[in-house]
Amino acid sequence: MLTFFNHIKSVFYILIFLCFVLSPKIQAQHFIKLNPQTHHYPLGELVEILEDKSQKMTFEQVISEENSKNFKLSTQKHPNQGYSTSNFWFRIRIFNYTQEKWYLAFQTTNIDSLDVHFVNEKKELIKKYICGDTHPFDQRPIDFFKFVFPFPKMENFDIYVKFSGYYAKRHDLGIIHENVLLQEAQYTLGTIIFTIAIVLGLVIYNLLLYLSVKDKAYFYYVVYLFGLCIYMASINGVAFQFVYPSIPQITTFVPNVSIIVGMINALYFGYYFLKADELLPKIYKKIIDFLTIFGWLIALGIVVTPGWNPNLLLLLFNITAILVLVIAVFLITMGVHCFMKGSRPAMFFLIAWGTVVVSALIYVAHLFGFPISVDFSNATVRLGVISEAFILSFGLSDKIKNTEREKRKMQAENLKLVQEQNTMLEEKVTERTQQLSESNEELNQTNEELQVTLESLNNYKNELEVINKNVTDSIHYAQRIQASILPTYQEINQHLDENFILFKPRDIISGDFYYFQEINHKIIISAIDCTGHGVPGALMTMLANESLNEIIQNKKIIEADMILNDLHKHIRKTLKQAESNNKDGMDMVILIIDKENKKVEFAGAKNPLLYVQNNKMNQIKGDKMPIGGEQKEQERIFTKHVIDITEPTTFYLFTDGFIDQFGGKEKRKFMIANFRTLLLELSEKNMLTQRQTLERTFANWVVDGGEKQIDDVLVMGIKV
Questions:
Q1: pTM of the model
Q2: 638: pLDDT strictly greater than 60
């Protein structure tokens, strides 16, 4: 027995010695240990990278002991090597003791060739995937426009990823849980489709204008917008998934060729829209012709190069990015010159292209290797394109209005001429009978011309009505897309049994919206009033919704005051309000409901919270400052309030649309005092009755005052 224990003791000392000897080696390895409580792991600074300048290293060579030590730990949050001829290998080491489904996901959608190897502890290949934009779409393991790869059911394994091809080497990747993958897929696809739908709506609208007024500026603008649609669909991977999944040969050049075609047409649109042929020297037209010929040559080179000279193709991609910036700067220069000569359209033109240049600078910096996230650069492009398209469409509409004003002025001058002729005829009727007859003949001829002019104006009015209907239809479509980002009643009812939402946009699309999220057994719900109505307000709701998702889902911030603090900084940074005159923002209330601990956190930006407890109406005022906008204080800090909900409590979240509505017999505002009284009377009734009563009260208030709805209306009721 003593001998046995001596053997055990010897083995124990040997194990201690081996642990001591091997410990530096173990500590030097970088790995990710998956935790079921964390649903997203960004891998920017957790991956090891090996550059293969020869483009000839095999998988067996990469995993060999000789090359294993050549892997370098990434120093960038968003690894980005820009345009490079090298191949890059990534190594990620995984410890997975969970029973959850995990995926390796790439935010980058443009990758020529992507080889993913899953390797066990013995360096044996378990699974290999080969896909990318140069391979048919059906080779991807997951039917999704981004690259997503499921993890094998193993505890410890390594992932080796090989990137190769012509695109900029941007490697924004992470590990995400199955639930997060579904949420991100729905949101990202909805945002992209929403953007493309808006631009396509503007394409149809301006095409109809071109067919109506026959102004070639509209034709160039339509082609420019259509090129942008193709470009956005291709850089986000949507076109490859839904349009040409079996033709990978064209994915290499579609984005670059489409942006070149779009920018060439933008040159001619700007030239004719600004009437530069009348205001500027002829040298501008010669520069445009030169850029056009140069652009077509670059596009032709991109189409024919991939099969025989990849180095030349990379050079052409670099030239394309520079050409886009040169055209954008040239257009702004042309706009400034026209504006200085008093051109009214130049004002719209400069504002629109200013947004494009900012987004283009960010995106091109991303392509050339600056550590900017793919989501941020793509979102900047989408926001810049939408803003520019709307502003230029307004500019084209303003041009039509100016033409209409000139026609009305001409008609007034003709009528004045007729009146003068009549007066002259009456004064000379007795002495110039013969001249009166001749003047009457001229008058009849003028009246006939006026009748023809009037008929032409009526026809023009009918055409504008048709155009207006098409624009309205496009906005209705945009409204359906906006509705897709709102949480459904079914989602809310899964977590809150008793609730109601009264949502009445003033226009077709709204600047008010509501937000709902359940995370870590806490319920986050908010009512938000963004600056503006209609299309501008809807754009702000998309920005606010995306920002809240970033703060809550990605940053995991679930404290009411901290969410508002971070959202304020995010909005000011995104809209560049520190260095611009932009003062857009939002008023809002946010609740964090913790059912387990029987408490609710509240924070408010200008808007208050009402709640009924023990048949008593209570009010907590929000801080007297909005989210975003002008900031005079050094740092904006919002206040958190905590409410005990051991007793049944009904909360009411609302924007100012209901209480600021004019109406009633005295044509005055509804006011907060009347609103509190009404809610206290309704608080004991069921939620459906409360909503119906509020809706009926609002409608009667507007009708009795003979007024129209002046603002978006949002009221939410929650009983916990």
A1: 0.47
A2: yes
